[in-house]
Specification:
Blueprint lengths: L3 E17 L2 E14 L5 E6 L9 H18 L5 H11 L4 H18 L4 H4 L12 E3 L4 H13 L4 E5 L5 H11 L4 E5 L6 H11 L7 E2 L7 H10 L4 E3 L8 H5 L5 E5 H4 L2 H13 L3 E5 L5 H8 L7 E2 L12 E2 L21 E2 L1
Parallel strand pairs: 4-5, 5-6, 6-7, 7-8, 8-9, 9-10, 10-11
Antiparallel strand pairs: 1-2, 2-3, 12-13
Helix pairs in contact: 1-2, 1-3, 2-3, 5-6, 7-8
């Protein structure tokens, strides 16, 4: 076998400026990996790096030649365990870069067997769920308008970004136009522990599913303080980066939120899911603002999840890749009519 590897960078505009408690984003900088075998099959994977976790498109591009050299040296996309181990030995951190290669290898391995990735993993495509759609921070009236647009597009699971002095007003406004949707909120580490408990007490009146990352990730005891006093379930995101974090958050939250770009690859994501289950945690898979080159792969984890927050590609104004259908938010694995992850260049 002879594998050829390449990568390219894309700047993808977002449909709307996307604001969270840490700042505003108007475009997604992503890097796409391609691995081609001797028969012309191409595995595709994407990196959506986050500076919050120490990665940028430039750092991804800097380490990809070494990571792809591992793939070329192993020369077998099915030998995923060896590729993963060798990549970790070569580049210790840079999880988004390793994830892009992991996805491309999985995509190619499934394509060589002419099966979709969920079947390669032995999962039931009908055991799926809906992704949430995120309403980013903005002035309250603009958030109302974004919510109305989401409802018009058929989304009935919404995630609302908080972390302002208008948090209660924001949720009250969104509930007034979306009284029947499933709704949860994400503070992105913006609250103090006591502030979080107070706000959650008030937010509980709006029938929320849960509250994501109320306090800074490094404040482990603060997270425990909130968890023990909260009237709503708590999800850990920034506090849940790698497999080693699962035992640390197990008595501090109800839901572990993993992301491919945080954990370093699909095999690691599956290990995190099973470890979270062993610690009696529910599991959500989230994302950054990403292309379908990576979101499509995350969709195949849906049968293993309790919640999906995989709207990264839905927030883009344009995406060079098509992926798994998510019409009105439903992740339609059973409707996928091509092998691999389903990511294809449009």
């Amino acid at each position: 076998m002879s594998l050829e590897t390449t990568f390219e960078r894309h700047s993808l505009p977002l449909e709307f400026p996307f604001t969270i408690a840490r700042g505003t984003q108007t475009e997604a900088e992503v890097v796409t990996v391609r691995i081609e075998d001797e028969d012309g099959r191409v595995g595709v994977g994407g990196a959506g790096p986050s500076s919050h976790y120490g990665e940028t498109p430039a750092t991804v591009e800097a380490v990809l030649p070494d990571l792809l050299a591992v793939v070329e040296d192993v020369d077998d996309p099915h030998n995923l365990a060896l590729i993963e181990r060798r990549m970790r030995e070569t580049v210790e951190r840079n999880p988004a870069a390793r994830t892009a290669v992991s996805i491309a290898c999985h995509d190619l391995a499934a394509k060589r067997l002419d099966v979709p990735l969920y079947q390669y993993w032995g999962l039931d495509p009908d055991d799926t769920l809906e992704t949430s759609y995120t309403i980013g921070l903005d002035d309250t009236e603009r958030m109302r308008e974004k919510t109305e647009t989401a409802l018009e597009r058929g989304y009935d699971r919404l995630k609302v970004k908080l972390g302002t002095d208008r948090d209660i007003e924001i949720v009250e406004t969104i509930r007034s136009v979306a009284p029947d949707v499933s709704l949860f909120v994400d503070a992105n580490e913006a609250w103090t522990p006591r502030e979080a408990v107070s706000k959650i007490d008030r937010l509980a009146a709006f029938d929320l599913e849960f509250v994501e990352q109320p306090v800074p990730a490094e404040n482990h005891e603060g997270l425990r303080f909130v968890y023990e006093r909260s009237t709503l379930p708590i999800a850990a995101d920034e506090s849940c980066v790698t497999l080693e974090d699962i035992p640390r958050i197990a008595n501090r939250c109800d839901i572990a939120n993993l992301k491919l770009m945080k954990c370093g690859g699909l095999r690691e994501a599956k290990r995190m899911i099973h470890t979270a289950r062993a610690h009696d945690l529910e599991v959500m898979c989230g994302c950054m603002t990403e292309s379908n080159a990576s979101i499509a792969a995350a969709c195949h984890l849906a049968p293993l999840l309790d919640y999906a927050d995989l709207d990264g590609s839905l927030l883009l104004a344009e995406d060079p890749y098509d992926g798994v259908s998510m019409s009105a938010g439903r992740i339609d694995l059973a409707g996928l009519d091509r092998p691999g992850t389903g990511a294809v260049r449009e």
